[in-house]
Amino acid sequence: MWHKGTAAEDWVTRFTVGEDWRWDTILLPYDLEGTRAHAWALGQVGVLTEAEVAEVSDALDAIRAAWEAGDVVVRPEDEDMHTVIERELTARLGDAGKKIHAGRSRNDQVLTALRLWLRDALAGIGAGARDVGGALLDHAEAGQTLLMPGYTHGQRAMPTTVAVWAAGYADLLTDDTEGLRAAADGANTSPWGSAAGYGVPVLDLPRDAVAERLGFARTQAIAAVQLSRGKAEGAVVHALVQLGLTLNRLASDLALFATSEFGFVKLPVEHTTGSSIMPQKRNPDVLELARATAHRLTAELHLLLTLPANLPGGYHRDLQLTKEALMRAVGATRDLVAAVAAVLPGVEWQADRMRAALSPDLFATAEALKRVEAGTPFRDAYREVGTHLDRLDVPTEADALAAYTSSGTPGNVDVGALRQRLAEAAGTGSDLDVSPAH
């Protein structure tokens, strides 16, 4: 197609195509749907007859079935999914297949498919994030009175509870999900009909009608959609990084709490691994890889932020790499939330070990503030308690919790309110809802 009678050398194909054919194998069903809407539009402007539009739609169904059966694939020599679809349509329909690329470019074609895929993929991640948040809030609900040490600078600081620990991460996760929803909404814009970024002459393509048929919230108003490449993807991956960073710290906590030195939790055996040499070992590999995923996401974000910089306007082949970065980041995040959602329900808190770790010094702040309540200036109370730490005792669980009355503190976590907020952030349905109604 590109070389007008001459063939590219093998290394040129390898270098320019890269891994794109693998990603296009995933995107192919979305390109089929974009092509279906494009065929309808060509029927509206008289390029295809009504009969040809119906034939194309039927052929696209057949290609989808063949793809699902593994009979239609994208190979490196195909270069991309667009070639495969056009070739299959032409083989099945003849001239109708040859007409299908009228009024389109691979630029708006791939962006349309990518954004359709992204809508589904982010819905899955939103559902996974909701599952993680729900599992955390289950722990919070059961752990309202389960006291444990809280830490600053890696040292015991003040008492906290399992509920505060778990609800704190659920609260962050809800913020992350709201950010993901905003990024998803920003990408829920139809690039269809913009062609190579300069619009389509002669044909009066119904851009808004096709956007509606494809379920996009709106049409990207100006045809220069290539200017948005990297930015829309970067906004999505930035939101994924925030989610990844929350789960990074959560995984770090659980891996630390599971050590023999802490012993605050037991991890589900099915989500740990053994050692090839040490018979006794059970390693938190799932949590460690979950922790590491945040760094993978950051690497993809770095590419998306820097690759488009300094490029002149319009399309450049450099921008091809934004697709891979986005799809890698989305795939890694999808695996991340699935992994953490699988581990959390099996985490068992060890109340005896946590209680034994409640040393008297954890209650120094409470003792100082009791003296403040009785009229002692804070700095005097601070000094008196700090110079007589040996006089402190560990209070009963009930007394320790009774010292707190503010919302969000030990013994005062409103799990129900957090569940409601998480549900609203993730959408009212089973998925992160980025449909036009939202």
Task: Give a brief outline of the structure.
Keywords: Amino-acid biosynthesis, Arginine biosynthesis, Lyase. This protein has 438 residues and is mostly helical.
Question: Helix and strand layout, with pairings?
Answer:
Blueprint: H1 10-17, H2 20-44, H3 50-68, H4 81-93, H5 95-99, H6 106-142, E1 147-152, E2 155-161, H7 162-187, E3 189-190, H8 207-213, E4 218-219, H9 231-257, E5 265-266, H10 285-306, H11 320-343, E6 348-349, H12 351-356, H13 364-373, H14 378-386, H15 397-402, H16 415-426
Parallel strand pairs: 3-4
Antiparallel strand pairs: 1-2, 5-6
Helix pairs in contact: 2-3, 2-6, 2-8, 3-4, 6-7, 6-11, 6-16, 7-9, 7-16, 9-10, 9-11, 10-11, 13-14
Structure description:
It catalyses: 2-(N(omega)-L-arginino)succinate = fumarate + L-arginine. Pathway: Amino-acid biosynthesis; L-arginine biosynthesis; L-arginine from L-ornithine and carbamoyl phosphate: step 3/3. One of its GO terms (molecular function) is argininosuccinate lyase activity. The chain is mostly helical and 438 residues long. It has three domains: 10-102, Fumarase/aspartase (N-terminal domain) (Fumarase C, Chain B, domain 1); 107-202 and 217-356 and 419-426, Fumarase C, Chain A, domain 2 (Up-down Bundle); 360-393, no CATH class. The protein has 16 helices and six strands. The strands form three sheets. Strands 1-2 form a two-stranded antiparallel ribbon. Strands 3-4 form a two-stranded parallel sheet. Strand 3, helix 8 (207-213) and strand 4 form a beta-alpha-beta unit. Helix 6 (106-142) packs antiparallel against helix 7 (162-187), helix 6 (106-142) packs parallel to helix 11 and helix 7 packs antiparallel against helix 9 (231-257). The protein is elongated.
